[in-house]
Amino acid sequence: MGFRHNNILHNNHFHKDWQRRVRVWFDQAGKKKSRRNARVAKAAALGLRPLHPLRPAVRAPTIKYNTKLRQGRGFTVEELKGAGIRKKEARSIGIPVDHRRKNKSEESLNLNVERLKAYRERLVVLPRRNKKNKGKFPDLSGVTTTRETLVAFPIPAGTVAEGPRAITAEEKEFQAYRTLRHVRADHRVAGARAARKAKKEEEEANAKK
After folding, report:
1. CA-to-CA distance for 61 and 33, rounded, in angstroms?
2. Looking at the record, which segments are called Disordered (predicted)?
3. pTM for this one?
4. Could you read off the pLDDT of 136-151 as tens digits, one per residue?
Protein backbone atom coordinates (compact mmCIF):
# COMPACT_ATOMS: atom_id res chain seq x y z
CA MET A 1 0.00 0.00 0.00
CA GLY A 2 1.43 3.38 -0.95
CA PHE A 3 1.35 6.55 1.08
CA ARG A 4 0.26 9.92 -0.27
CA HIS A 5 -0.15 13.41 1.08
CA ASN A 6 1.05 14.68 4.41
CA ASN A 7 -0.48 11.90 6.53
CA ILE A 8 0.91 10.12 9.57
CA LEU A 9 2.83 6.93 8.90
CA HIS A 10 1.22 3.65 9.92
CA ASN A 11 2.40 2.24 13.20
CA ASN A 12 0.94 -1.29 13.28
CA HIS A 13 1.12 -3.01 16.66
CA PHE A 14 1.71 -6.68 15.98
CA HIS A 15 3.40 -7.62 19.29
CA LYS A 16 0.32 -8.22 21.44
CA ASP A 17 1.25 -11.54 23.11
CA TRP A 18 -0.92 -13.56 20.71
CA GLN A 19 0.39 -16.86 22.08
CA ARG A 20 -1.63 -16.28 25.24
CA ARG A 21 -4.86 -15.58 23.34
CA VAL A 22 -4.80 -18.26 20.65
CA ARG A 23 -7.31 -21.08 21.09
CA VAL A 24 -5.89 -24.61 21.19
CA TRP A 25 -7.45 -28.06 21.34
CA PHE A 26 -4.93 -30.16 23.19
CA ASP A 27 -7.70 -31.93 25.16
CA GLN A 28 -9.26 -33.47 22.04
CA ALA A 29 -8.15 -37.03 22.85
CA GLY A 30 -9.15 -36.67 26.51
CA LYS A 31 -12.60 -35.30 25.63
CA LYS A 32 -13.13 -38.18 23.23
CA LYS A 33 -12.41 -40.66 26.00
CA SER A 34 -14.67 -38.76 28.40
CA ARG A 35 -17.58 -38.84 25.94
CA ARG A 36 -17.09 -42.56 25.40
CA ASN A 37 -17.08 -43.24 29.14
CA ALA A 38 -20.22 -41.14 29.52
CA ARG A 39 -21.98 -43.17 26.82
CA VAL A 40 -20.99 -46.43 28.49
CA ALA A 41 -22.23 -45.17 31.87
CA LYS A 42 -25.52 -44.03 30.33
CA ALA A 43 -26.04 -47.41 28.63
CA ALA A 44 -25.37 -49.23 31.89
CA ALA A 45 -27.79 -46.98 33.79
CA LEU A 46 -30.56 -47.50 31.24
CA GLY A 47 -30.43 -51.27 31.56
CA LEU A 48 -32.18 -52.93 28.61
CA ARG A 49 -33.82 -49.73 27.39
CA PRO A 50 -32.84 -48.27 23.99
CA LEU A 51 -30.15 -45.63 24.09
CA HIS A 52 -32.17 -43.21 21.94
CA PRO A 53 -35.92 -42.79 21.32
CA LEU A 54 -37.54 -43.81 18.06
CA ARG A 55 -37.75 -40.91 15.61
CA PRO A 56 -40.08 -40.48 12.60
CA ALA A 57 -38.92 -40.25 9.01
CA VAL A 58 -39.62 -36.74 7.66
CA ARG A 59 -38.77 -34.80 4.52
CA ALA A 60 -36.04 -32.21 4.75
CA PRO A 61 -37.27 -28.65 4.00
CA THR A 62 -36.79 -26.65 0.77
CA ILE A 63 -36.86 -27.98 -2.78
CA LYS A 64 -33.10 -28.59 -2.67
CA TYR A 65 -33.30 -31.26 0.05
CA ASN A 66 -36.92 -32.49 0.04
CA THR A 67 -35.98 -35.67 -1.84
CA LYS A 68 -34.15 -36.89 1.28
CA LEU A 69 -35.59 -38.40 4.44
CA ARG A 70 -34.14 -37.62 7.87
CA GLN A 71 -35.04 -38.09 11.53
CA GLY A 72 -37.81 -35.83 12.80
CA ARG A 73 -38.55 -34.50 16.28
CA GLY A 74 -41.56 -36.67 17.11
CA PHE A 75 -44.57 -38.54 15.76
CA THR A 76 -47.87 -36.80 15.08
CA VAL A 77 -51.14 -37.64 16.81
CA GLU A 78 -52.51 -39.07 13.52
CA GLU A 79 -49.55 -41.45 13.21
CA LEU A 80 -49.99 -42.65 16.79
CA LYS A 81 -53.70 -43.16 16.18
CA GLY A 82 -52.95 -45.18 13.04
CA ALA A 83 -50.61 -47.43 15.02
CA GLY A 84 -53.10 -47.76 17.90
CA ILE A 85 -50.89 -46.07 20.51
CA ARG A 86 -52.14 -43.48 23.00
CA LYS A 87 -50.16 -40.28 23.59
CA LYS A 88 -49.40 -40.98 27.25
CA GLU A 89 -48.47 -44.56 26.45
CA ALA A 90 -46.15 -43.40 23.65
CA ARG A 91 -44.10 -41.21 25.97
CA SER A 92 -43.75 -44.04 28.47
CA ILE A 93 -42.25 -46.45 25.91
CA GLY A 94 -39.74 -44.11 24.29
CA ILE A 95 -41.83 -42.60 21.47
CA PRO A 96 -41.70 -38.77 21.33
CA VAL A 97 -44.81 -36.84 20.25
CA ASP A 98 -44.71 -33.66 18.16
CA HIS A 99 -47.97 -31.71 18.30
CA ARG A 100 -46.81 -29.09 15.78
CA ARG A 101 -45.97 -31.33 12.83
CA LYS A 102 -48.82 -32.15 10.43
CA ASN A 103 -49.13 -35.00 7.95
CA LYS A 104 -49.47 -33.58 4.44
CA SER A 105 -49.34 -36.85 2.48
CA GLU A 106 -50.54 -40.42 2.82
CA GLU A 107 -47.05 -41.72 2.07
CA SER A 108 -45.42 -40.09 5.10
CA LEU A 109 -48.33 -41.09 7.33
CA ASN A 110 -48.17 -44.75 6.27
CA LEU A 111 -44.37 -44.85 6.50
CA ASN A 112 -44.30 -43.64 10.10
CA VAL A 113 -47.26 -45.82 11.08
CA GLU A 114 -45.32 -48.84 9.82
CA ARG A 115 -42.27 -47.73 11.82
CA LEU A 116 -44.38 -47.49 14.96
CA LYS A 117 -45.94 -50.91 14.40
CA ALA A 118 -42.55 -52.53 13.81
CA TYR A 119 -41.19 -50.89 16.97
CA ARG A 120 -44.20 -52.02 18.99
CA GLU A 121 -43.81 -55.63 17.81
CA ARG A 122 -40.16 -55.82 18.94
CA LEU A 123 -40.70 -53.90 22.17
CA VAL A 124 -40.60 -55.81 25.47
CA VAL A 125 -42.08 -53.85 28.38
CA LEU A 126 -41.11 -55.13 31.82
CA PRO A 127 -43.51 -54.47 34.71
CA ARG A 128 -42.47 -52.37 37.68
CA ARG A 129 -40.65 -54.19 40.43
CA ASN A 130 -42.96 -54.38 43.42
CA LYS A 131 -44.59 -57.00 45.61
CA LYS A 132 -47.57 -57.41 43.28
CA ASN A 133 -45.42 -58.17 40.19
CA LYS A 134 -42.95 -60.42 42.00
CA GLY A 135 -41.94 -63.37 39.81
CA LYS A 136 -43.75 -62.07 36.68
CA PHE A 137 -40.67 -61.00 34.75
CA PRO A 138 -40.01 -62.84 31.45
CA ASP A 139 -36.80 -64.71 30.85
CA LEU A 140 -34.68 -62.63 28.45
CA SER A 141 -31.49 -64.67 28.67
CA GLY A 142 -31.72 -66.01 25.11
CA VAL A 143 -33.21 -62.88 23.53
CA THR A 144 -30.92 -60.74 21.37
CA THR A 145 -31.60 -57.06 21.98
CA THR A 146 -30.57 -54.05 19.90
CA ARG A 147 -29.88 -50.90 21.89
CA GLU A 148 -29.56 -48.60 18.86
CA THR A 149 -32.99 -47.73 17.46
CA LEU A 150 -31.54 -46.19 14.30
CA VAL A 151 -29.74 -49.46 13.53
CA ALA A 152 -32.83 -51.58 14.17
CA PHE A 153 -35.21 -49.14 12.42
CA PRO A 154 -33.15 -47.22 9.83
CA ILE A 155 -34.48 -44.25 7.91
CA PRO A 156 -35.30 -45.41 4.34
CA ALA A 157 -33.96 -43.65 1.29
CA GLY A 158 -36.17 -40.82 0.06
CA THR A 159 -35.90 -41.65 -3.64
CA VAL A 160 -34.45 -44.57 -5.54
CA ALA A 161 -32.04 -43.35 -8.20
CA GLU A 162 -32.76 -44.63 -11.70
CA GLY A 163 -29.91 -46.41 -13.40
CA PRO A 164 -28.44 -45.26 -16.70
CA ARG A 165 -30.23 -46.33 -19.86
CA ALA A 166 -30.35 -45.50 -23.55
CA ILE A 167 -32.60 -42.66 -24.76
CA THR A 168 -35.51 -43.92 -26.83
CA ALA A 169 -36.50 -42.51 -30.22
CA GLU A 170 -39.78 -41.20 -28.79
CA GLU A 171 -37.92 -39.24 -26.12
CA LYS A 172 -35.61 -37.76 -28.76
CA GLU A 173 -38.57 -36.53 -30.83
CA PHE A 174 -40.37 -35.06 -27.80
CA GLN A 175 -40.04 -31.25 -27.64
CA ALA A 176 -40.29 -30.32 -23.99
CA TYR A 177 -39.96 -26.53 -24.39
CA ARG A 178 -42.65 -26.28 -27.07
CA THR A 179 -44.98 -28.52 -25.08
CA LEU A 180 -44.62 -26.35 -21.98
CA ARG A 181 -45.23 -23.18 -24.04
CA HIS A 182 -48.42 -24.67 -25.51
CA VAL A 183 -49.69 -25.71 -22.09
CA ARG A 184 -49.00 -22.26 -20.61
CA ALA A 185 -50.68 -20.54 -23.58
CA ASP A 186 -53.76 -22.78 -23.31
CA HIS A 187 -54.00 -22.04 -19.59
CA ARG A 188 -53.63 -18.30 -20.19
CA VAL A 189 -56.37 -18.01 -22.86
CA ALA A 190 -58.72 -20.64 -21.42
CA GLY A 191 -61.05 -18.02 -19.93
CA ALA A 192 -61.25 -15.95 -23.11
CA ARG A 193 -61.95 -19.06 -25.21
CA ALA A 194 -64.73 -20.17 -22.86
CA ALA A 195 -66.31 -16.68 -22.95
CA ARG A 196 -66.08 -16.56 -26.76
CA LYS A 197 -67.65 -20.01 -27.05
CA ALA A 198 -70.49 -19.09 -24.69
CA LYS A 199 -71.15 -15.88 -26.64
CA LYS A 200 -71.24 -17.79 -29.95
CA GLU A 201 -73.70 -20.36 -28.56
CA GLU A 202 -75.91 -17.55 -27.24
CA GLU A 203 -75.94 -15.82 -30.66
CA GLU A 204 -76.85 -19.10 -32.39
CA ALA A 205 -79.66 -19.69 -29.93
CA ASN A 206 -81.03 -16.16 -30.51
CA ALA A 207 -80.82 -16.62 -34.30
CA LYS A 208 -82.94 -19.79 -34.15
CA LYS A 209 -85.70 -17.90 -32.30
Report:
1. 35
2. 188-209
3. 0.60
4. 656 655 555 677 888 8
Contact 112, 73 (CB under 8 A): no
Domain ranges of the chain: 46-128+144-152, 169-208
Q: How far apart are CA 199 and CA 202, in angstroms?
A: 5
* Angstrom distance (rounded) from CA 61 to CA 132: 50
Structural element, H or E, at residue 69: strand 69-71
Query: Which residues are CB-neighbours of 43 under 8 A, at least 6 positions away?
Result: 51, 147
- Element spanning 35, H or E: helix 28-46
Q: Which of 149, 96, 99, 141 is nearest to 119 (CA)?
A: 149
**The 3-state secondary structure of 136-157, one letter per residue:** CCCCCCCCCCCCCHHHHCCCCC
Q: pLDDT tens, 170-191? A: 999 999 999 999 999 999 999 9
